[in-house]
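Field notebook, page 425. I keep forgetting to write these up properly, so this time I am using the form the group agreed on. The chain and the ligand, glycyl-adenosine-5'-phosphate, are recorded exactly as supplied. Prediction of the bound pose follows.
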Amino acid sequence: MWDYGPLGVLLKKNIKDEWWKSNVELRTDVVGIDAAIMMNPIVWEKSGHLAEFSDFLVQCKVCKGRFRMDALNVEKYYDEKTKILKMPEKYDIDCPKGGHKFEFGSISEDDVKGLGIKPMKFNLLIPAFLGVLEDRQTKIYLRGEITQGAFVNFENVVSSTRVKIPFGIAQIGKAFRNEITPGNFTYRSLEFEQMEVEYFIKPEDSEGDKWFEYWKKQRMDWYISLGMDKDKLRFRKHAKDERAHYAKFAEDIEYKAPFGWSEFEGIHHRGDWDLSRHGLSYVDEEGNKFTPWVIESSGGVDRSALFFLLDAYHEEEKRVILKLHPKLAPYKVAVFPLLANKENLVSKARSIYQDLRKNMMVAWDDRGNIGKRYFAQDEIGTPFCITVDFQTLEDDTVTVRDRDTAKQDRIAIGKLNEYLQDKLK
Ligand code: GAP
């Protein structure tokens, strides 16, 4: 589990705001909801998560480390029917922990009986217990995906809004998973945030293909529009055996991270899996009743934040710059009085700072020399720095320095808001 500090929370908020704008505010066919984290356990039974939402666990005899079976690429030796992993007599696998070869150790009784290796099935849902009387508590689950909230609210949305198929339900919120191998910073954690659109369409192959391709493009374009390097992005199709239990077909958007190509958003064709399991249907204007299909785009807020950060990080000879898109940068601008001990400079700078804060996040810094203050802002991605100097006192102009080019413009204070709004677009 990770906590985000004052800058991290702003970065995540900006990602979520941009996502919401693009997927809800600028569209006429998508509405938003905010469903509960704690849901009736029947939802998870119907959705198939209680039976199917599992990883397989294997143990290394040498280091006693436990890993997901798919981390070793040995799924082809796994027999679905007997649930047994029959490895060839000789195999050569590096242990994910590093420094030695992997040797299968025993974590289940069946291994001991000599049947082969029986990977332990491990459900990812995290249970919680509700009720004030300890001996009469009800077991529930923290939601393993935010998605089910969109399905259990499907009828409420249809009956209370003017949506007509095709339409979408959008949501951003926390999800929880009992991951066996959390790691790579925030990349795989137990508590994380998702941003999803469940898009309901007519149950026809041509519609499914069309909307699947549409959402793939839509979502890839969104990351590129916010500055992610095109060459570090790609789609990857899921093979049949890696698809989630609900998916007819699926493709991931992956980023070329320092730890390898890594998925951070999935476009899933969920067919009628969910609505039919929940017993829901739709009646169109002609009175035809059917179970819509669902095309889902499911992105991770934390993984996006991590990859936007990695993508923006640049080192130059004298400085580190976070070249975040201005829309994502935690602070849009910083204001400095040239000298902290000159009251007239400080009060002028303070009034600019207070004025700009009405429209955007503004940082204030009056410590040390100006060069150091610039570098500190470059490092946290602030696109512009404004300095109030002695000329300001004479002609009401300030210098505005650009993070990426380090060039400075002299701008009249009265025109600052307009100048910045234009540049930040
Ligand atoms: N509703 C579909 C669904 O949940 P998923 O591929 O399991 O699909 C979607 O998850 C996204 O949620 C992932 O692409 C990723 O960005 C994020 N995510 C999933 N598990 C995560 C974890 N353990 N830590 C951080 N983010 C995670």
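OBSERVATIONS:
- The pocket of glycyl-adenosine-5'-phosphate is lined by residues 145, 147, 177, 179, 188-189, 192, 194, 196, 263-266, 296, 298-300, 302-303 (CB under 6 Å).
- The longest strand covers residues 260-271.
FOLLOW-UP: compare against the apo run.
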